[in-house]
Amino acid sequence: MRPLRLALLLAVLAAPAAAQSARPPSDAAPARGSRLGFDAGRLTRIDSVLQRAVDRSEIGGAVALVLKDGATVYEKAFGWADREANRRMTPDAIFRIASQTKALTSVAVMSLVEEGKLSLDDPVSRFIPGFEHTTVAVRADTGRAIVPAKRRITIHDLLTHTAGVSYGTDSLVAPLYAAAGLGPAAGWGWYTADKKEPICPTIERLATLPFVAQPGERFVYGYNTDILGCVIERVTGAPLDEVIRTRITAPLGMKDTYFYLPPANRARLTAVYASGPEMKITRAPDGPKGQGDYVDGPRRSFSGGAGLLSTARDYARFLQMLLNRGTLDGARILSPSTVALMTTNQTGALFSQTGQGFGLGFRTLEQPGADGRVESVGTFGWGGAYGSTYEVDPKEHLVLVFMVQLLPSRSTVPAQFPTLVYQALVEPLSR
């Protein structure tokens, strides 16, 4: 999540001109956008880098999308949606977005806060009683000791990933989580699409397990947003998929975003590939560590932290709503003040001591050039386990979406994408 993007920028700028002549994808649209501050010729460098990655089997395929002031600056599909089936990638391809789900769940939580049905200071135990007395695993001379939590976990803790809740794959707690069907027993911890039980029973079982840090003391990435998904269900009395649909995706016209794929759209779902030696891909296996159960699974567990499927265009609409301070095409999802709160660092130096922060669901850029990043201060974003990433730059009015399906991934392409976009922005607004 913290690539040395300045180094990548230098590599891109030093690329030989011949590399720019790599064949474009068959469905590519002409580069455009110079009127919005982008150099059309420099945008073709994105073509070169992504097509080379396909040609050398570093990625199977990808969709890249850039909006400026809500207008499409760049949108192209590269490579294969399913290489073995000889199915080319298209701009409307559907991707498993994993942790990009967290952004929608966090927005749903904040919509309930705006309605007075939730408070950021509410203890989670108000909605899930098992969280009244949680525990923490610590290292001891005997190997592991379990101690009481110093205080109750709050909604704010979960939104900022400072509750001490991991994905249960760390050696300190992994055996306990595996025995409960979580952590190592759930793919890489975050996967629940194959579960036959709804999300709340899973979260109630999670509450009986020890966490790995005291509330408020560390940034720990884990089941936090899945817990929030259960909270949403308890507050609204409706399944999480219905809440996401009625509050976010339907009002925003996101017609291709859902937890489980409609069978009619099976042919639009991209295949998952796995990075092997020398970054060469092979088709990922079926099951939790590969293709998943998003079409033929039980369709019972709605993971607020990692369960959604979407397209680049759909997800860009969601991000444009945030860039517009909570509204899009007449649909008001959140107030401007709520969006500002969500996209402002709320964790001090707990997330990073090198100029990045974390708000209520998003990583934030606090200092110019932090960790080699080229985006403007105030940019917020995140990514997903399958390699997809996104950025929103309020100062430059930019939305960046990069969709790919790699699990696990050794590719540098997702980290390069923002650099490739910003090197083409020759008339920036904020500099």
Order of strands in the sheet with most strands:
3-2-1-16-15-14-13-12
Overall shape: globular
How many distinct folded domains?
A: 2
Number of helices: 11
CATH topology of the largest domain, anyone? Answer: Beta-lactamase
Provide the CATH top-level class of the largest domain: Alpha Beta
Account of the 3D structure:
The protein is α+β, with helices and mostly antiparallel strands and 431 residues long. It folds into two domains: 5-79 and 251-284 and 307-423, DD-peptidase/beta-lactamase superfamily (Beta-lactamase, 3-Layer(aba) Sandwich), CATH 3.40.710.10; 103-245, Beta-lactamase. Helices cover 26% and strands 16% of the residues. The protein has eleven helices and 16 strands. The protein has an eight-stranded antiparallel beta sheet with strand order 3-2-1-16-15-14-13-12, sandwiched between helices. Helix 1 (5-13) crosses helix 11, helix 3 (101-114) packs across helix 7 and helix 3 (101-114) packs across helix 8. The chain is globular, with a radius of gyration of 21 Å.
Architecture blueprint of SSEs:
Layout: H1 5-13, H2 40-55, E1 61-68, E2 71-82, E3 87-88, E4 95-96, H3 101-114, E5 135-140, E6 143-148, H4 155-160, H5 174-179, H6 199-206, H7 224-236, H8 240-249, E7 273-275, E8 281-283, E9 309-310, H9 312-323, E10 327-328, E11 331-332, H10 336-342, E12 356-358, E13 363-365, E14 380-383, E15 389-393, E16 398-403, H11 413-423
Antiparallel strand pairs: 1-2, 1-16, 2-3, 4-9, 5-6, 7-8, 10-11, 12-13, 13-14, 14-15, 15-16
Helix pairs in contact: 1-11, 2-11, 3-7, 3-8
